Every structure is written in structure tokens, then in C-alpha cells.
Amino acid sequence: MATVWxxxxxxxxxxxxxxxxxGLGADEVRARLKQYGANELPTKKSTSPFVVILxxxxxxxxxxxxxxxxxxxxVGESGDAIVIGLAILIxxxxxxxxxxxxxxxxxALKSYEIPVxxxxxxxxxxxxxxxxxxxxxxxxxxxxxxxxxxxxIIQSVGLSVDEALLTGEAFPVSKIVEPLEGxxxxxxxxxxxxxxxxxxxxxxxxxxxxxxxxxxxxxxxxLVTEIPxxxxxxxxxxxxxxxxxxxxxxxxxxxxxAVGVLRGIPVNEMIGIAVAxxxxxxxxxxxxxxxxxxxxxxxxxxxxxxxxRRLVAAETLGSVxxxxxxx
Length: 327
Hints:
Elements: H1 10-16, H2 26-36, H3 49-55, H4 60-74, H5 78-106, E1 116-121, E2 124-129, E3 138-142, E4 150-162, H6 164-167, E5 173-174, E6 192-193, E7 198-210, H7 216-225, H8 233-262, H9 267-281, H10 284-303
Antiparallel strand pairs: 1-2, 1-3, 3-7, 4-5, 4-6, 4-7
């Protein structure tokens, strides 16, 4: 069972973490760094632009458009091929731009990692690379510095921290040393400080209880970077519509081809007629219209600071009936 650090007295926290007020020794730091790893936020493999481009052409309707463009070229309908090609190109470009922006924006959370921090090790204050902070380190906090890891406050002299990054609270939170009783939400844990938050006043010390992906900010980054690809309602509808459209085209074209052959029309001529009929039946403007509408919706959401990583996800809000939010 995980330790609930804000319920523990400061002395008990130090004891459980095996550290005194003089901080950790060099040998213990090396051992813990090997055990817990570097104090870094989790990252996912960066998505290449080529992969993002390919994602724009995976929908069934897009595949039908590509086949229709090919069919138009085969039967010599270069005008239709150009129109359909433009529809494909517009959809690909708009979709790529929106998703690429979102991919880059999701990486912005990494900017909350702290480059350096002041810690007490072996009884002396040292400025170290924050990636080398380990659970049990005693961190010195002062106005203007960012908190380099999640920690339990063990000393506070007018210490106040801006935690808007995690809680949305507009005002700084005054930090205390005393333990808390009962359940406490993240914003109510006034004897804790969290990675990425900003010290705005006073000074103090905290003992590190979690680093890297084990921190509260680390949990958020994992949620953002590990979002599974799920089919949206719009994608399900487009897929169903595409299959129905494709089946209808196949039946009609096959029937036309059979009737023509039975009436003595040459097979080569009927093949051309069948392909032309299939191309003419493709609603090439539908995909462009959908892409433009979704792009506009995504831009409006971004202006409200709502990050949408995939273009089709922008329409999912249309299926939402209840929104539960806190700040």
C-alpha cells in the first residue's frame, strides 16, 4: 500500500525515507539513482511527419476517393481526376497541419522539468542537475524557483507556492509542516509541493517523495502521451457510410455492366462506362467539407486552450451530454 505522505509527521517521513536533516550521502544517492532512475518526465517516441501524413489517408472514404481518381485516369476523365485529387490533397494538408500542431503542443509539458535544483547532501547545500534528484533528497526552496519533484514540506518560513498548473487555483497556497488528517484532494495537501509548481514567496525545505513519472505531473504526462487510438462516432459513421456506398456502387455497376453485355455492347466499352459511372457517383466534396468543418472546430477549441490531438476527435464533443469539471 502506497504511503500517504501528507498524513505523516515530518520526522516520520524522514525516517521512512532513510534520511536525516543533513541529507543523503554520495553512495546512497548513487544507489537510489540506480533504483529509481533519473528525475525525468515520461516521453513517447516522437511521431514522424510521414506517419502523420499517412494517417490522413486511412479512412474508407479517402480510399474510395483515391480509387475513383485512379479510375478517372484510366477512362481518360482527367478533369474528374484533378477535382478528386484536389479534394484528397486539401483533406491531407488540413488534417496534417492540425494534427502536427497538436503533436508538438503535447510535448510542451516537458518544459516544466527543472534544469537545476538546490539540495542538501552530506550537510552542505549543493546546486545539482535536477535529473539526479532521488527520493529522500532534501531540497531547498526559495521564492522564484520551481519545485523539481514531489515532496513533503519539512520546513516553511512564509513559504507559498503557485499550483495553478495542477489545480487551477488562482491564488498561491501557503505551505505548512504539520500533518493533515482525513482525506485531502491534491489542492488541499498544503504540506506537499509538486513538480513544476512555482515558489512565489518565503523559503523552506522539502524531502523528495516521488520523482519523474511517479509525480503528479508525471501522471498527467502519461495520460497525454499514452492516449489509445479509439474510433470516434464520426469515424464509425463514415466507415459505415463508405461500406454502404461501396456496396451500392458495386451492385449498380455490376447490374449496368451485365445489362450492357446482354444487349450486345462490347465488353471494353462497358468497362469504360462502368468505371465512369462509379467515378461520377463518388461524393468527393463530402470529405473536404468534413475536414474543413472539423478544422474550424479544432481551431476554436485551441483558442479556448483545449488541446485536441486528432482532427476527428473535435467532433466527439457533439456526442457529449454531461461535462464534469473543476476549474
